[in-house]
């Protein structure tokens, strides 16, 4: 199981030599990293050459590789395919999810999402924590009363003040999208490696989206991104510049190693994704919603 | 945690050289880097990983020679004095960092 995140920001060739990842920059020394230590690779620039042997080897160790667009935001993800030994069984079970099971799972996910949002507000020293916590308790099966959106309205205004999630010129939106994209990729990788079909979701069911299930699972993880961006916003508030700068991004790379608690055990965010997806597999086999384990946001300062 | 492997292997005959090369290549393929000739080290996250790579090494031992393995903590490793020479490329750029920004 890998534990390193690799970010390629300079023109280079990456290949495989002696079962090590070989990073050969245009100017500079060749560096090797043991493949099995890596969990995520983000290719940030367009002047990087990747060999097919390396890509094939990445899937064997279940390593996810992101490509980015011109603004360095992840826009593509390379994940293992048909890796799990019981691939067909898991996929069959997933397709056979009953409507009541999906509804109860979605209820649990939304409830944890709102609870994590409450924690974000608490750590940022904001109010309305109690109100969100009571929202979390009132989520009905399938979130039929749409508490999720009511909570989101309250939450974003409290967290960021005057803020419109749709405004593309606000760097906070760029930062949030960037962070969400990273976590979404990590979830998709884990789902694929367990034999799930990310296209078939619990609540999300867009026929244009190949990652509906990832978009369900990501919900409780969004608060982790929010808290990092909110902290940045408080520190950078004096800056007149509204662009999303590389120095903002470096903070978001820490996302994968953030502390969290899942199933009562403290671990890193990246590990918790694995625990969460494994628990979803158990839910699928046992048809018991209680088996689903979701991450709890904990204070990462100090 | 760092796992060291120190070895002295006979290289008198062709067969012995082949055994020695095979052992060395096995170390490199498993993520060990050369600190000095016949001194290899691997970064490990925790005791489980140390045991894993120690097991792998023990399964691929050559028939003759002297080989030792030793584990030290990252703190102890950092206190190592370099008397002549300099850090290796991997020590400088990879080390125990979780986030590698290349």
From TrEMBL, chain A:
Transmembrane segments: none annotated. It holds the Pfam family Cas_Cas1. Keywords: Antiviral defense, DNA-binding, Endonuclease, Hydrolase, Magnesium, Manganese, Metal-binding, Nuclease. Its EC number is 3.1.-.-. Its cofactor is Mg(2+); Mn(2+). Coiled coil: none annotated. PANTHER family: CRISPR-ASSOCIATED ENDONUCLEASE CAS1 1. CRISPR (clustered regularly interspaced short palindromic repeat), is an adaptive immune system that provides protection against mobile genetic elements (viruses, transposable elements and conjugative plasmids). CRISPR clusters contain spacers, sequences complementary to antecedent mobile elements, and target invading nucleic acids. CRISPR clusters are transcribed and processed into CRISPR RNA (crRNA). Acts as a dsDNA endonuclease. Involved in the integration of spacer DNA into the CRISPR cassette. Belongs to the CRISPR-associated endonuclease Cas1 family. The keyword Nucleus does not apply. One of its GO terms (molecular function) is metal ion binding. Gene3D superfamilies: CRISPR-associated endonuclease Cas1, C-terminal domain, CRISPR-associated endonuclease Cas1, N-terminal domain. GO terms for biological process: defense response to virus; maintenance of CRISPR repeat elements. The keyword Signal does not apply. InterPro entries: Cas1, CRISPR-assoc_Cas1, CRISPR-assoc_Cas1_C, CRISPR-assoc_Cas1_N, CRISPR-assoc_Cas1_NMENI. This is CRISPR-associated endonuclease Cas1. Mn(2+) binds at residues 148, 204, 219. Homodimer, forms a heterotetramer with a Cas2 homodimer.
């Amino acid at each position: 199981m890998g534990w390193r995140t690799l970010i390629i920001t300079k023109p280079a060739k990456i290949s495989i030599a002696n079962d090590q990842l070989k990073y050969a920059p245009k100017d500079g020394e060749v560096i090797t990293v043991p493949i099995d230590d890596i969990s995520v690779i983000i290719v940030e620039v367009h002047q990087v050459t990747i060999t097919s042997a390396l890509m094939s080897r990445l899937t064997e160790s279940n390593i996810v590789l992101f490509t980015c667009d011109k603004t360095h935001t992840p826009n593509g993800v390379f994940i293992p395919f048909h890796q799990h030994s019981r691939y067909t069984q898991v996929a069959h079970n997933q397709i056979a999810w009953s409507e009541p099971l999906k509804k109860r799972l979605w209820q649990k996910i939304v409830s944890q999402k709102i609870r994590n949002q409450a924690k974000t507000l608490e750590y940022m020293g904001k109010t309305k924590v109690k109100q969100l916590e009571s929202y979390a308790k009132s989520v009905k099966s399938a979130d039929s009363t749409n508490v999720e959106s009511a909570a989101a309205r309250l939450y974003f205004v409290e967290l960021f003040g005057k803020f419109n999630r749709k405004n593309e010129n606000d760097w906070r939106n760029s930062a949030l999208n960037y962070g969400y994209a990273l976590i979404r990729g990590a979830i998709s990788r884990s789902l694929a490696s367990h034999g799930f079909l990310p296209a078939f979701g619990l609540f999300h069911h867009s026929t244009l989206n190949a990652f509906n299930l990832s978009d369900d699972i990501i919900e409780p993880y969004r608060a982790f991104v929010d808290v990092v961006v909110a902290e940045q916003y408080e520190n950078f508030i004096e800056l007149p510049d509204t662009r999303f700068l590389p120095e903002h991004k470096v903070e978001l790379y820490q996302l994968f190693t953030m502390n969290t608690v899942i199933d009562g055990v403290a671990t890193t965010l990246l590990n918790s994704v694995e625990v969460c997806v494994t628990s979803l597999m158990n839910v699928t086999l046992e048809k018991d919603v209680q088996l689903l384990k979701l991450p709890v946001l904990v204070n990462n300062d100090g | 945690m760092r796992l060291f492997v120190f070895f002295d292997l006979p290289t008198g005959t062709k067969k012995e050289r082949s055994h020695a090369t095979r052992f060395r290549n096995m170390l490199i393929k498993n993520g060990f880097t050369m600190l000095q000739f016949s001194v290899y080290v691997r970064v490990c996250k925790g005791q489980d990983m140390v045991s894993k790579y120690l097991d792998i090494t023990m399964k691929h031992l050559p028939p003759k020679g002297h080989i030792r393995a030793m584990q030290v903590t990252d703190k102890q490793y950092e206190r190592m004095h370099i008397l002549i020479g300099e850090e290796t490329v991997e020590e400088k750029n990879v080390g125990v960092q979780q986030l590698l920004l290349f």
